[in-house]
Amino acid sequence: MSVFTTLRFGDPFGVPLVECATYGTPGGDGQATVPLDVTLNCSPGAVGVLETTLPMSFNTSFLMEDGRIGVWRSINGAAPYLDNGAIFQIRYLDYGPTSVFVRAYHATNLIDRRIIAYAAGSSFSTKAATFADNQIKTFVNENMLAGIVGASRDGVETYADVSAYLTKQANLSLGASIAKSGARRNLLDVCTDLAQASTTAGTYLTFEVFAPTESTLELRTYATQRGVDRRVGTANPVILSQLRGNLTDAHLVIDYTQAANFIVAGGQGEEAARLIGTAFDATRASVSPFGRRERFRDATNVASQAAVDDEADTQLRALRPLVLFTGELVETPALTRGIDFDLGDIVTAEQGSQQYDVRLDLIRETINSNGRRIACGLRSVT
Fold it and tell me: What pTM was computed for the model?
């Protein structure tokens, strides 16, 4: 099994400029091979990160703010592909005596750069209940793309519409029906709330800025799963465990420290006139005589009862006990990333005699002079 990895650098508009090979990969533009530390994360609202170090002998004139980096992989001599459609944008450069350190963030960070700059109660900040998938795309469209209405939005709109460089997938009408208010809140936070609220209501939902090509970007949503269902019981199951030799340093973490099961959310209004919504998980509260754990969610910018109720549901989801499985993957001819499993897949993880259905939410791949390593983060799907 051979996996070759190349970094392709481009300008902020997506024009390719230069490429370089990582350690163990032949080719590039005749430059020195470089290390790579890249994290992909498909959890709602997560922003992956890429880090590398280039020697000063490398032509670094192309490094610039928002310059693009794509990770291209070739497995067993096959044509290279853009890993998980991920484009990273340069946000940090550290020039030292002999090298320059580069840190870039996944293009989903673009959503984090905006706020919902409309007044509370307006049709642009407060949405009646509909599919969470459609809601996410509407909020992004009205705050980043052609749906911006300058007359209703706060401030000057110069450079606000980036629809020439970022498009959105058509509405899929997927996910739970969610009402949402988000006046002057961070756009990524609101989209994350919608995805989490849908998951709380029974339909897993996530989103990302995907690159169909290295020069194009598109907002996409995924319902039920981002990847492939490979758990036990499917046609081609993947089972990860130390006993099977494909996982090392495995840890199963069950964390109750921040868990809560009764949420009170407070919207607009004062005291007795304030909008109040609640959410309760009686099953979780019944596990112990002291099992009830209460929290308050301050949502003063929320102007409707339905939206306040959704705020409570979202917080209830966020404060569930954390079940996380981590470890270092050991690739084999029968278990290769990009062929047998990848980001967003649902697989089965074993710890002792127990099996857990988990979603491969996080992949961290490091390549340096010591070789290539893959760490993973797996979150329970139940």
Answer: 0.88
